Fold this protein.
Amino acid sequence: MSAIIDTFIAPPCFDEITLLFQDDHLLVINKPSGLLSLSGKNPQNLDSVHHRLVKLFPGCALVHRLDFGTSGLMVVARSKTINAALCQQFSQRSVRKAYQALLCGHLADDEGVIDAAIAKDPAQFPRMVICPIQGKPARSRYRVIERGYYQEKKGKGLPVTRVELMPETGRTHQLRIHCQQLGHPILGCDLYGGLLLPGADQAERLMLHASGLTFVHPVSGSTLQLSADSPF
């Protein structure tokens, strides 16, 4: 089996991380699109959410990650104890997550569920594949917010549907590959068909944003409910 080589080099990200919540135990941030969650092995991929935050908050750890192109809410623990407690909430699926996305085309249904197991695709790193045999269970719900057109300059432009996505599991690339499975990939998604339709190459980013997050503070026991408006 040949070794997987990651040749991706992230272009510079000049957008800042926005701090939405801070106390002695944890942070909630709004990550910009185009910023890695964790630094890569290649020295040219040093800049990341963790690389920036650890300078201000020594010892902090990311509780979960967002893809490079995805923007939005992330939880950061300020100690190992808090990190373990928050990771347990994520693994137990007690954290409620909501995303906004622009999907290519107009969805026929106003809401629905995508239930499709996901596995790694060793032949096409870093892609994932739908695989009912070897894949891990993955389930996402969606709700249509509005149907419209993207880049409406000359003519109608590309038909798109703005949706709220609610993942019930947390697999790698889950929402991106589930939307492709639905027949309506996320606009701007290079791995799962979001650049293939005429006009889709005008998308300046992956149109996926982590817009809502609800979890229990591991020390106070209070419910934290945070939101971040979609930038697209």
Observations:
- The chain is about 10% helix and 35% strand.
